[in-house]
Amino acid sequence: MATATATAVAEERLLAALVYLQCAAGCLLLGLNQYRNSPYGRQATPSCRLRVPARVAWAVQELPSLALPLYQCASQSAPRLRDAPNCILLAMFLIHYVHRSLIYPFLIRGGTPMPLFACILAIMFCTSNGYLQSRYLSHCAVYADDWLRDPRFLVGFGLWLMGMLINIHSDHILRNLRKPGGTGYKIPRGGLFEYVTAANYFGEIVEWGGYALASWSVEGAAFAFFTFCFLSGRAKGHHQWYLQNFEEYPKFRKILIPFLF
User: Which helix (H) or strand (E) element contains residue 185?
Assistant: First the structure.
């Protein structure tokens, strides 16, 4: 009994440490992004020679966030997954990463190779966050019997679904800017791209903000916070790049949040 209690305490401390680490990393990124752009895609420096093909990078780096929750689902020692709210919340997390690791990479047309260092950092994040979210929902999270009817869950689920659809639709628009075999960049049109430069990032931020609300947890909130910090910096870099490279780029477009930022 004492061993089980000590293990549970150690588990809680580990999850808390991962939450603090994720929030600290988000703050660090938010600060760094004020002075430099994310070294990815069109903003990667020419001096970066070690690169991974785009499809391989996306599939590999996102896979831990799919594999770790699936492992928890298959585990015999996941007591909280007997409860419907925990199962649905974990399914929300899984659905995103099924798309990101198994579908999205094979839809990419061409794609700029990713710097190896950025890919390794992404693998590290997806591993730690995949463990954090899945372990919390499968072993720690306790919800009321009527949680699926709670306004926090209903609003959060609606935001999660809306954000995911915006993200997928925006990625579809970006993919179709180039015809098969085509090269170069074009100004995205349609959907929320009429209002912001980074409509796909806006969708993902809304998605994980909804997930955080639906889960009503510091673990979900830390993930949503990190997502905002990371993607807001990339969105700012993309916006500046478009303004510098396209004289006709719509000046009324915001960076990330329609009408605000």
Answer: none
DSSP labels, 116-172: HHHHHHHHHHHHHHHHHHHHIIIII----TTGGGSHHHHHHHHHHHHHHHHHHHHHH
Distance, CA of 197 to CA of 204 (rounded, Å):
14
Tell me how far apart the 2 most distant CA atoms of the chain are, in Å. Answer: 69
pTM of the model: 0.91
User: Quick one: which H or E segment has residue 220?
Assistant: helix 218-245
Residues in contact with 135: Cβ distance below 8 Å, sequence separation at least 6, in sequence order:
11, 15, 72
DSSP string, 32-47: HTTTS--SSGGGS-TT
Comparing CA positions, the residue from 140, 107, 103 lying closest to residue 18 is 140
pLDDT digits 0-9 by tens, 171-227: 999 988 877 665 678 899 999 999 999 999 999 999 999 999 999 999 999 999 999
Instruction: Read off the tokens for 131.
Output: 């463990």
As a whole number of angstroms, the distance between CA 210 and CA 227 comes to: 12
d(CA 34, CA 31): 6
State the Cα–Cα distance between residues 13 and 24, nearest whole angstrom: 16
Alpha helices per DSSP H over 33-83? 54-62, 64-74
- How far apart CA 150 and CA 179 sit, in angstroms, is 46
Report the C-alpha gap between 173 and 193 in whole angstroms: 9
